[in-house]
Specification:
Layout (H helix, E strand, L loop, with lengths): L1 H20 L3 H22 L2 H8 L1 H22 L3 E5 L6 E5 L15 E2 L5 E2 L1 H11 L2 H11 L3 H4 L6 H14 L3 H12 L19 H11 L2 H10 L12 H14 L3 H17 L1
Antiparallel strand pairs: 1-2, 3-4
């Protein structure tokens, strides 16, 4: 009895560890299924099993069916050797076979040509190689910000850079953002000159986040960024410390997530007016 109980909790511990190490839907379903099965079996074993089954009645078969379904889903996800991904397009769908993360190599990934929401064709393989070969991880994070992609939509724990890029390619194709992706990559490789950016009085809450990011990068140094964060009541030390680009991105993400971007723009206008008066 004791050995059986220890084995049950050992299995639960294994699933909990795997879910903590690689949080994903399939391991979440597996953890939930195993935990529910262990608790149900322990409950039935503690009391009179036959009486409990009689009281559960048909509901027991519903629970058993859910547990079997959860186990089947976990097994299917675990042993699925190749993930088939269908990329949306106009007229015909373009299919790409992407190996699992552990098997991805720099020469194994191939993307079919794709289109954006306007029907414009793009060489997705070239976009992928340009991101892989010319952008740093910090640049890719800027790419996510410019495209309005949340980190948890494409990033997982212990993820390699190439798999992150693949996830970005897949998500933008699904959303019809391939054209926006190509433009965002070009803007990161060749940032707009300060004089090419909109004047401050033209920047508002409706301005694209990428415009605000480029404006701060072009016109604010680290000292001015820090003073701005302090004026907004933000702990400067909690922001990413790796680079100015990271500081700007984290500051904007903090404000966008809390619907406080209007406070930043208002403060920028106030500072500009004060500077003119002095």
């Amino acid at each position: 009895m004791l050995i059986g109980l220890i084995l049950k909790f050992a299995v639960m511990a294994v699933f909990l560890f795997m879910f903590w190490r690689r949080p994903s839907l399939n391991w979440g379903v597996g953890l939930l299924t195993v935990t529910s099965a262990v608790l149900l079996d322990t409950f039935l074993g503690t009391f009179n099993r036959d009486e409990m089954l009689a009281q559960f009645g048909f509901f027991f078969y519903v629970i058993a069916g859910l547990l079997i379904g959860g186990a089947a889903y976990w097994l299917f996800s675990l042993f699925q050797p190749v993930q088939m991904l269908v990329q949306p397009g106009r007229g015909a769908a373009a299919t790409a076979i992407i190996p699992p993360p552990a098997a991805v190599s720099s020469t194994a990934v191939h993307f079919s040509p794709g289109t954006d929401e306007t029907g414009t064709a793009f060489d997705r393989q070239m976009i992928f190689e340009e991101i892989r070969d010319r952008l740093s991880r910090d640049d890719v994070l800027d790419l996510l910000f410019d495209l309005g992609i949340r980190d948890n939509e494409v990033m997982t724990l212990q993820q390699e850079m190439q798999q992150l890029i693949i996830n970005v390619m897949e998500l933008t194709a699904q959303r019809g953002q391939t054209g926006q992706l190509a433009l965002a990559v070009e803007r990161i490789l060749t940032p707009p000159a300060p004089e090419a950016l909109p004047r401050l009085e033209k920047i508002s809450l409706e301005s694209p986040p990428t415009i605000l990011r480029h404006y701060l990068l072009a016109h604010y140094d680290l000292e001015k960024l820090q003073k701005t964060a302090v004026a907004l009541g933000i702990d400067w030390e909690q922001l990413n410390v790796t680079s100015k680009k990271s500081r700007v991105r984290d500051l904007l993400l903090y404000l966008y997530r809390r619907n406080r971007v209007d406070e930043l723009i208002h403060l920028m206008h106030e500072n500009a007016a004060t500077a003119k008066e002095s």
